[in-house]
């Protein structure tokens, strides 16, 4: 009995000790670690001259991990081959960089890690971590600072490459298409400012790229670009602002194809406003043709009365650029496009946007005797109808009243397309709310009169245009019957008075048309009258 009691007591004491140990090992709920890793040593030492190493190690005071190092790490001047970097997908107390390139002579190199080096537990980044060395006898020490803005959007893109080219005897305007820069840095993901460091004295050209391929050269079809018109001479105390824009690509026509039995599609890049498409193949006399550009798409459709053919040969001429292409388009088994109608509004009817009916095939005729409208009291509504063959829609103009419902009836034959197809019996039901459900905005702009003409756009928070007003002289910009929401205001300085924003072109040395954003978000509430004033000084 005594022996059993002693054994029980021994087990009790062991359990107590283990419980106490478990308590000591449990989370204490202390303050969160917000301290980033500290660099304690580098091999070779930072700021080394006459550098000849092939491996670099950076040691830290705690376990670290690498996050998004492919985007964050910027090597200046750029390397032809990306270095091997560890750890990848694990934790370590050091970062190792293995260089694969033969380094340039007498050159200062900077490795900027951005925020890729983070502590392993909480992800605190070691911000602005850099490693600098020189293959020559000294470290270059000049700097260049500035900021990048987007020409059209209120917020600039993340990870913009800022590039500096030395104006030596080999530099030409086309260098940026073929050769990486002498110096490069990155705006990272949280700021638009940049700082190029460890530069040498000289004359330079400054660029920025949203570099889709991450190859440090400009691809017009994929990249946004910003360029500074003037030459930069270092040293300088000036701060520079770069405006990033997407160029209109150089004109080219894609290979056309049969997409339907009655339609051949011609895709293109660039400006195709002067393009002429002509069939070289002799078409039967019974075949009618029509050419129509798709709205908001870089596509031209060649419509034709279907007939049996193996292929059709076309010439496509753009006289503006003196370009002529010849294409042979082989027929294939595809369906036929039949008439389909789609209203631009359904259910709720806007007080400000005209109602229209869009078609997918070319429209040729409307018959208003087969179109009728009535309100909620079954009373007829007077309207006018117009066929727009360029936009390929039928617009209906009628007085839109508050707290009202409308029914639009289309009998067969109301709308006829290029192929003689007519609509089926169709009805559209629309209704309006009360004026009190909406808000009104009066927007005043204080700006030099010489700044006109202006295009004032009211957009949602994502930048999609909701309303637009063009003005050639000072006026109050009235935006009435607005849905309750948050809005932005974009002011375009329409320098060439063509009613739209025009982008820039690097080789032509054209900067994009200027845009100013009202700095605040404008909140519109139901039954509100709001007045805002925007003073633009530059």
TrEMBL record:
Region (Disordered): 24-43
Start and end residues of each SbsA Ig-like domain: 33-135
Keyword list, A-Z: Signal
Domain of life of the native organism: Bacteria
Pfam family, one: Big_5
InterPro entries: SbsA_Ig
Keyword Signal: yes
Protein name: Ig-like domain-containing protein
Taxonomic source organism: Pseudozobellia thermophila
């Amino acid at each position: 009995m005594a022996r059993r009691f002693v054994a029980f007591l021994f087990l009790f004491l062991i359990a107590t000790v283990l419980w106490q140990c478990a308590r000591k090992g449990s989370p204490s709920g202390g303050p969160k670690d917000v301290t980033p890793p500290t660099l304690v040593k580098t091999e070779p030492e930072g700021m080394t001259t006459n550098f000849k190493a092939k491996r670099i190690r950076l040691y830290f005071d705690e376990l670290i991990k690498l996050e998004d190092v492919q985007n964050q790490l910027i090597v200046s001047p750029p390397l032809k081959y990306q270095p091997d970097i560890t750890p990848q997908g694990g934790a370590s107390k050091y970062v190792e960089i293995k260089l694969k390139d033969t380094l340039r002579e007498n050159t200062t190199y900077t490795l900027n890690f951005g925020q890729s080096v983070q502590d392993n537990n909480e992800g605190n980044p070691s911000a602005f971590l850099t490693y600098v060395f020189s293959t020559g006898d000294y470290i270059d020490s000049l700097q260049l600072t500035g900021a990048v803005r987007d020409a059209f959007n209120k917020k600039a893109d993340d990870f913009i490459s800022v590039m500096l080219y030395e104006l030596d005897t080999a530099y030409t305007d086309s260098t940026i298409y073929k050769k990486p820069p002498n110096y490069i840095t990155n705006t990272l993901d949280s700021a638009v400012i940049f700082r190029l460091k460890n530069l040498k004295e000289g004359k330079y050209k400054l660029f920025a790229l949203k570099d889709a391929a991450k190859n440090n050269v400009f691809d017009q079809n994929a990249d946004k670009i910003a360029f500074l018109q003037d030459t930069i001479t270092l040293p300088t105390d000036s701060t520079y602002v770069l405006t990033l824009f997407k160029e209109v690509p150089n004109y080219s026509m894609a290979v056309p194809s049969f997409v339907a039995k009655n339609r051949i599609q011609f895709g293109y890049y660039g400006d195709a406003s002067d393009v002429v498409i002509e069939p070289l193949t002799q078409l039967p006399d019974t075949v009618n043709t029509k050419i129509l550009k798709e709205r908001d798409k870089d596509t031209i459709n060649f419509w034709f009365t279907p007939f049996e053919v193996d292929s059709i040969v076309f010439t496509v001429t753009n006289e503006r650029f003196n370009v002529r292409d010849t294409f042979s388009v082989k027929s294939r088994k595809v369906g036929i496009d039949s008439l389909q109608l789609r209203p631009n509004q359904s259910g709720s009817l806007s007080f400000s946007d005209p109602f229209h009916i869009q078609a997918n095939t070319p429209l040729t005729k409307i018959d208003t005797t087969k179109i009728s409208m009535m309100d909620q009291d079954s009373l007829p509504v007077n309207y006018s109808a117009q066929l727009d063959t360029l936009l390929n829609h039928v617009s209906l103009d009628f007085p839109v009243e508050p707290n009202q419902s409308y029914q639009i009836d289309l009998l067969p034959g109301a709308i006829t397309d290029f192929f003689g197809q007519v609509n089926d019996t169709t009805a559209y039901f629309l209704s309006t709310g009360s004026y009190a459900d909406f808000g009104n905005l009066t927007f005043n702009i204080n700006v030099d009169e010489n700044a006109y003409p202006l295009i004032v756009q009211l957009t949602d928070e994502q930048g999609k245009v909701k309303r637009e007003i063009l003005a050639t002289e000072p006026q109050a910009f009235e935006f009435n019957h607005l849905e309750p929401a948050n809005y932005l205001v974009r002011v375009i300085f329409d320098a060439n008075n063509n009613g739209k924003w025009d982008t820039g072109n690097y080789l032509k040395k054209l900067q994009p048309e200027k845009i100013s954003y009202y700095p605040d978000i404008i909140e519109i509430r139901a039954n509100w009258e709001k007045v805002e004033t925007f003073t633009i000084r530059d």
